[in-house]
């Protein structure tokens, strides 16, 4: 099956006056117009092409690189607005349509918006929506603490910056943990700090996640989690007590809590250590 709005690896079937016809293993065919035909090729060769509907709503393949693919998010600029909706520049000859009903707020020509592209079930056309929250689902996030995830800067809030996580979920980086300027639509890598009981995802932009801490620091974190975020130990605890609870020396323990304290992962009180 040839998937519109995405890349397809297809075989060159034949040459015609209008271009090459490419096909998949199921016998489906699509035109690669002359302007995209490579200088050299042989019948039977494979090509990786992007497929979509052209100005006349005909399926075509191109060698252009789109700025967004189906069922994904991207930051795009509005190229035109008319009486039926907005049209965005997504790197194709035909602009991407955003109906008025799919605009979170009325779009303006020249401005940039994060949108989600999908196939309209009624028309079969590729369209986009800036009502992006409905395409994010945190009911059962398939991520865990310490996971490395792909992020897109999504929205600025009083708490920090919301991120799109792995193109599926919504997460948050708290503002006191952001040490560089972030730009809307910017893509970067982060680490899952915590998945809360309500399935909200806390994120870190630090490349060195907790999982990569020295073993003693990671051990303290694991025991804290097992004990509901509290450990009745501190730097004045007896070495024997530390060894009994953590199976490590007092020197390793002090080094571990020092690392965790600097990373603002714990707070140290008179009665013990608390997980932040």
DSSP summary, beta strand count: 18
Neighbour order of strands in the largest sheet: 3-2-1-4-5
Distance between the termini: 50 Å
- By CATH, the topology of the largest domain is Arc Repressor Mutant, subunit A
Helix content: 10-25%
Q: Provide the structure class.
A: mainly beta
**SSE order in H/E notation?**
EEEEEEEEEEEEEEEHEHHEE
Shape: elongated
The stretches of 5 or more residues where confidence is low (pLDDT under 50) are: none
How many domains? The number is 4
Summarize this structure briefly:
With 276 residues, this protein is mainly beta. The chain has helices at residues 215-226, 239-246, 250-262, and strands at residues 6-16, 19-23, 29-33, 46-53, 59-62, 72-81, 85-89, 96-99, 112-119, 126-129, 148-156, 160-165, 169-174, 187-195, 201-204, 230-231, 266-269, 272-275.
Structural write-up:
- The chain has 276 residues and is mainly beta.
- The chain has four domains: 6-62, Nucleic acid-binding proteins (OB fold (Dihydrolipoamide Acetyltransferase, E2P), Beta Barrel); 72-133, Nucleic acid-binding proteins (OB fold (Dihydrolipoamide Acetyltransferase, E2P), Beta Barrel); 148-204, Beta Barrel (OB fold (Dihydrolipoamide Acetyltransferase, E2P)); 213-275, Orthogonal Bundle (Arc Repressor Mutant, subunit A), CATH 1.10.10.
- The protein is 12% helix and 39% strand.
- The protein contains three helices and 18 strands.
- It has a five-stranded antiparallel beta sheet, with no helix packed on it. A five-stranded antiparallel beta sheet has the order 8-7-6-9-10, with no helix packed on it.
- A hairpin with a 2-residue loop joins strand 17 and strand 18.
- Helix 1 packs across helix 3.
- It is elongated, with a radius of gyration of 26 Å.
């Amino acid at each position: 099956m040839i998937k519109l709005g995405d890349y397809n690896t297809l075989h060159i079937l034949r040459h015609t006056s209008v271009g090459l016809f490419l096909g998949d293993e199921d016998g489906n065919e699509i035109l690669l117009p002359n302007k995209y035909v490579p200088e050299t090729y042989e019948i039977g060769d494979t090509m990786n092409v992007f497929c979509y509907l052209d100005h006349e709503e005909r399926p075509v393949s191109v060698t252009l690189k789109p700025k967004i693919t189906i069922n994904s998010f991207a930051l795009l600029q509005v190229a035109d607005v008319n009486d039926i909706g907005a049209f965005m520049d997504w790197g194709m000859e035909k602009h991407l349509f955003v109906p008025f009903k799919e605009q979170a707020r009325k779009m303006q020509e020249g401005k940039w918006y994060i949108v989600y592209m999908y196939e309209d079930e009624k028309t079969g056309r590729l369209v986009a929506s800036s009502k992006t929250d409905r395409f994010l689902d945190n009911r059962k996030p398939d991520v865990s603490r310490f996971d490395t995830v792909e992020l897109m800067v999504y929205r600025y809030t009083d708490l920090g910056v919301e991120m799109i996580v792995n193109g599926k979920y919504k997460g948050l980086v708290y503002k006191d943990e952001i040490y560089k300027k972030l730009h809307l639509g910017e893509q970067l890598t982060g680490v899952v700090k915590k998945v809360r009981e309500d399935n909200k995802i806390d994120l870190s932009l630090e490349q060195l996640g907790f999982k990569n801490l020295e073993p003693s620091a990671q051990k303290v974190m694991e025991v804290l989690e097992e004990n509901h975020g509290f450990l009745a130990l501190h730097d004045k605890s007896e070495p024997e007590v530390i060894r009994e609870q953590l199976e490590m020396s007092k020197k390793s323990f002090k080094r571990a809590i020092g690392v965790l304290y600097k990373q603002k992962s714990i707070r140290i009180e008179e009665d013990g250590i608390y997980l932040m």
